[in-house]
Design brief:
Length: 147
């Protein structure tokens, strides 16, 4: 349930300063090159979802993702939610849930993608709890790393 009057819309190039600032608050360091690349992809080679959450005309969160098609042995098109962030001041207000809900609606309505996956570090308890609370469950895939 969304408790705050949040609106979810597509990310635009004007959101760059706000997104980079939220990311910096979350991580404690700035990643301008990473965000320049992600904004370029969103603008010129749009994946199906790069969204921001706005409260009182202020950007307070974001979610970005892409889709794979017959990759990793997965049949058909699969959505991947690869980065989500909500400004710490605005957490636990349903904004993260609203971002993921819209992300999944777009997957379904624009691309007929029913399966959306993400990867989570199990040590990040808050993130695991968030995804569990909104209905995500552990899947069958295992990530492997080279020696
Ligand atoms: C994870 C994150 C996006 C959650 O955003 P949020 O707006 O606070 O989430 P919501 O308010 O929509 O919460 C949805 C549900 O998850 C639960 N939840 C959210 N954060 C939680 C936490 N840290 N611990 C336990 N439960 C949590 C809420 O209680 C809520 O459950 P409910 O609806 O049953 O009450 C936010 O904490 C964040 O930006 N974290 C840092 C970045 C990050 O870890 N990103 C993921 C990897 S890219």
């Amino acid at each position: 349930m969304v408790r705050a009057p949040v609106s979810i819309r597509e990310l635009t190039r004007d959101d760059f300063p706000a997104v980079i600032e939220i990311d910096q608050v979350i991580r404690g360091f700035s990643r301008p090159d990473f965000w320049r690349r992600r904004f370029m992809i969103a603008e010129f080679n749009p994946p199906w979802a790069s969204l921001v959450a706005e409260l009182d005309n202020r950007v307070v969160g974001f979610v970005l993702g892409w889709s794979s098609c017959w990759e990793f042995g997965l049949a058909g098109e699969v959505g991947w939610l690869d980065i989500i962030g909500v400004h710490p001041t605005y957490r636990r207000e349903g904004i993260g849930r609203a971002l993921v809900t819209e992300f999944m609606n777009l997957a379904r309505n624009l691309r007929q993608v029913e399966r959306v996956l993400t990867l989570v570090d199990p040590e990040q308890f808050g993130t695991m709890d968030f995804f569990s609370s909104i209905g995500f469950a552990r899947g069958e895939l295992v990530h492997l790393k080279a020696p």
